Amino acid sequence: IVLPLTATVAIFLSPESAVMVPLPLTEAVTAAFDAIEAKEKKVNSFVTVDREGALKRAEEVQKMIDDGTLTGPLAGVPVAIKDNMCTKDLLTTCSSKILYNFKPTYTAEAVENLEKAGAVIIGKTNMDEFAMGKIEERRVGKDVDLGGRRIIKKK
Fold first, then answer.
1. Stretches in the chain below the pLDDT threshold 70
2. Which among 17, 52, 124, 125 is placed 20 to 30 Å from 131, CA to CA?
3. What is the predicted pLDDT for the residue at 12?
4. CA–CA gap between residue 92 and residue 125 (Å, rounded)
5. pLDDT per residue over 79-118, tens digit each?
6. Alpha-carbon gap, residue 118 to 71, rounded angstroms
7. What's the half-sphere exposure (Cβ side, CA atoms, 13 Å) at 152?
8. Closest C-alpha among 102, 146, 118 to residue 28
9. What pLDDT is attached to residue 4?
């Protein structure tokens, strides 16, 4: 699933001119979730999606963007992270049945750095179990169609 880094709306003032207006961050994040929902059953790319947490974070980040606290290139960008990066109180399974209910008590420094830069974490992406082995053998979920290459989840 490929999502734009920023979301804008064009307002046409006349046939010759248009003004690009930034979309409120909560709307951009909602659009990211809509795109995920539209394709997720087919591609099975997410292990965890955190709509509620991401929308809350989007509101916080929007306030910091508006007051000039956040100005960097990641400010307000919806980001999905690999499921082996710990995120406090958010399911982190490493795509393994062994960790099916693991919620870390801390957040990995790499994720903290993304959040400090204003990124909005929308969920955790699927991967090889513990980032090891072949995708055909250890990926969590159902059969996946990756553009004509069908991956069958082994039981």
1. 1-22, 133-155
2. 52
3. 47
4. 10
5. 999 999 999 999 999 988 899 899 999 999 999 999 999 9
6. 9
7. 2
8. 118
9. 42
Cα angle 38, 57, 100 (rounded to 5 degrees) comes to 65
Q: Quick one: tokens of 50? A: 């955190």
Query: 54: which residues sit within 8 A by CB, 6+ positions away?
Result: 29, 33, 78, 120, 121, 122, 123
Give the three-class secondary structure for 30.
helix
Q: What's the pLDDT at 155?
A: 42
- Other beta carbons less than 10 A from residue 70's beta carbon: 19
- In terms of Cα–Cα distance, which of 69, 79, 72, 63 is closest to 25? 63
116: amino acid identity, one letter: K
* Rounded distance between C-alpha atoms, residue 101 and residue 110, angstroms: 22
Identify whether the C-beta of residue 119 lies closer than 8 Å to the C-beta of residue 77. Answer: yes
User: What confidence score (pLDDT) does residue 16 get?
Assistant: 59
Cα separation, 100 vs 111, whole angstroms: 21
User: Can you give the pTM of this predicted structure?
Assistant: 0.75
The whole-angstrom separation of Cα 141 and Cα 121 is 21
Instruction: Based on DSSP, count helices (H) and strands (E) in the chain, helices before strands.
Output: 4, 7
